[in-house]
Design a protein that fits this description.
Blueprint: H1 2-26, E1 35-36, H2 38-46, E2 52-58, E3 61-76, E4 93-108, E5 113-123, E6 129-138, E7 141-148, E8 153-160, E9 163-170, H3 171-174, H4 177-185, H5 190-197, E10 212-220, E11 223-234, E12 238-245, E13 250-254, E14 259-263, H6 264-267
Antiparallel strand pairs: 1-10, 2-3, 2-14, 3-4, 4-5, 5-6, 6-7, 7-8, 8-9, 10-11, 11-12, 12-13, 13-14
C-alpha cells in the first residue's frame, strides 16, 4: 500500500520540479525581452569565471583571434596583496580593482600583414578607468600607448628599424585636434585645420555611447540559451552589439564595417 502511494508522489514531485526548472530556463515570455541594468551586466563581465576566446572575422572571413580576460583584484584589509588562495585567520579580502587583458592578432591589408595587440585596462571598484596600456606590433613597427587617469596624460611610443621616439600629451591637448595635427604633420594654416578635422572649435573626446541591456536568446547548435544583449550606437550612426552569457562570458560582438568577434565555443558548432 505504501509503495502505491510513494511512487505517484515521487513522480508528481519530479514532474513539478522539471516544469519549474523549464520555466526558469526557457519560460518567462516577455521577461526574456525585458530591459536589464547595464551595471548588472557589466559587473558580470568583470567577474566572469573564465576568459573568452574569440574568433575575429570581417564580412564572414576569419582574420584573427583574441582572448578577453577579466579579473577582480583582491587585497587584504591591511593593504598587502595576497598571492595565495589561503587567507590568514582574521584577515579579510577586499575588492580593490578590476583588470581586463585583451591579446590577440589579426591579418590586415594587402598583402596580408599580421598585427599583434595587447591591451591592459585597470578599473576602480566603481567601474571608472584608472590606467590603460596598449601595444600594437607589426614588423618592424611597434606602437605603445599608455595613459593614466591620475596624471591626466597620454604617452605614445613608436619604434622601427630607423629608430624610436616618444611623445606625451595632456588631456587638454588631446581635446584640441589642431595640436595633434601640428605635432605629427607639422604646422598647418588654421584655415585648413578646421576643414581637415571637421571641427571649428575643440570638442570633447566622448563618443556619446549610451548602452542598453536586455534579456535575449542565443542559439548554440540545436539549443537556445539565455543571454544578455548590450547595444549602443557609435557617433549616432554605427551600431555596436555585445552578447554576454549569464555568467559574463563574451559570446559575440558585432562592430561596424562587417567586423565580428565570436566565441570559439559558438563558432565551432
Amino acid at each position: 500500500m505504501f509503495n502505491r502511494v510513494y511512487f505517484p508522489l515521487v513522480a508528481f514531485f519530479w514532474i513539478v520540479m522539471n516544469v519549474l526548472l523549464w520555466r526558469a530556463e526557457f519560460g518567462g515570455g516577455p521577461e526574456l525581452s525585458s530591459s536589464v541594468s547595464t551595471e548588472v551586466v557589466w559587473q558580470k563581465i568583470l567577474t566572469a569565471p573564465d576568459d573568452s576566446t574569440l574568433e575575429i572575422s570581417r564580412n564572414g572571413k576569419r582574420v584573427g583571434y583574441c582572448r578577453w580576460g577579466p579579473n577582480a583584484g583582491e587585497e587584504l584589509a591591511t593593504g598587502k596583496i595576497s598571492r595565495d588562495d589561503f587567507v590568514p585567520e582574521g584577515m579579510v579580502k577586499q575588492l580593490r580593482r578590476y583588470t581586463i587583458d585583451l591579446e590577440g592578432n589579426l591579418l590586415s591589408g594587402e598583402p596580408a600583414t599580421r598585427v599583434r595587440f595587447n591591451l591592459h585596462l585597470v578599473l576602480a571598484t566603481n567601474h571608472l578607468w584608472r590606467e590603460l596600456s596598449l601595444r600594437i606590433a607589426t614588423r618592424p613597427e611597434v606602437w605603445i600607448i599608455h595613459t593614466t587617469a591620475a596624471d591626466q596624460t597620454l604617452e605614445i611610443k613608436y619604434e622601427d628599424e630607423s629608430g624610436k621616439w616618444t611623445r606625451r600629451f595632456t588631456f587638454d591637448e588631446l581635446r584640441d585636434p589642431r595640436k595633434l595635427l601640428e605635432e605629427f604633420a607639422g604646422p598647418l594654416p588654421l584655415a585648413l585645420v578646421g576643414p581637415l578635422t571637421g571641427l571649428e572649435e575643440p570638442k570633447n573626446l566622448s563618443l556619446g555611447l549610451k548602452w542598453e541591456a536586455r534579456n535575449d536568446w542565443l542559439k548554440i547548435g540545436h539549443s537556445q540559451v539565455r543571454v544578455y544583449r548590450l547595444q549602443a550606437h557609435l557617433l549616432d550612426r554605427y551600431q555596436v552589439v555585445v552578447v554576454v552569457s549569464r555568467v559574463g562570458e563574451i559570446m559575440r560582438v558585432e562592430l561596424p564595417g562587417g567586423w565580428a568577434l565570436v566565441n570559439e565555443a559558438v563558432a565551432s558548432l
